[in-house]
């Protein structure tokens, strides 16, 4: 029943999935508003000037944080497993063997449908609840199909 995998069989990556930048649209909008408001206060010479500088810096910092937050969550589909990794400095990783996947569910709210996004929920046979939730990913049906194909190939 439990067979050791031969050394010649290597695990390979099938897909790397990240959240869409649409997930960060609220933060992008707030950053733009703060940056524009700070620049406008500085141009008009509003006193105290520290307010304009503070708004400008907060807006720019919020824009710098977005790419870091985008890279902090990723899901990787390999020939053997599905892995979720969270964090940049301190990371946590959750893995599900493809043969242990019980179900794959795709949900798309109205806002997500307008942007072509959705959530993919993977349930494992080892858990009563979901095991991995991929939120706001582009083409969720394609992601679910990729997981299904990898699972079927693994089971064959």
**Total beta-strand segments:** 7
Distance between the termini: 15 Å
- SS class: alpha+beta
Percent of sequence in beta strands: 25-35%
Going by CATH, the architecture of the largest domain would be Roll
Average pLDDT taken over every residue:
89
Task: Using the coordinates shown, work out and report the CATH topology of the largest domain.
Answer: PH-domain like
Largest sheet: 4 strands, antiparallel
For the record, what CATH class of the largest domain applies? Answer: Mainly Beta
The fourth-level CATH homologous superfamily of the largest domain is Pleckstrin-homology domain (PH domain)/Phosphotyrosine-binding domain (PTB)
Low-pLDDT runs of 5+ residues are none
């Amino acid at each position: 029943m439990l067979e050791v995998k031969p050394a010649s069989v290597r695990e390979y990556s099938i897909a790397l999935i990240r959240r869409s930048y649409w997930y960060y649209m609220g933060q992008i909008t707030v950053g733009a508003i703060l940056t524009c408001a700070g620049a406008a206060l500085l141009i008009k010479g509003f006193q105290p000037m520290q307010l304009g500088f503070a708004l400008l810096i907060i807006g720019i910092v919020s824009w710098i944080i977005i790419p870091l937050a985008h890279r902090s969550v990723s899901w990787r589909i390999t020939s053997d497993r599905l892995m979720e990794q969270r964090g940049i400095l301190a990371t946590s990783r959750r893995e599900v063997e493809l043969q242990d996947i019980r179900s794959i569910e795709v949900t798309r709210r109205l806002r997500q449908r307008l942007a072509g996004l959705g959530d993919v929920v993977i349930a494992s046979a080892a858990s009563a609840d979901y095991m991995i939730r991929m939120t706001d990913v582009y083409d969720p049906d394609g992601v679910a199909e990729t997981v299904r194909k990898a699972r079927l190939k693994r089971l064959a």
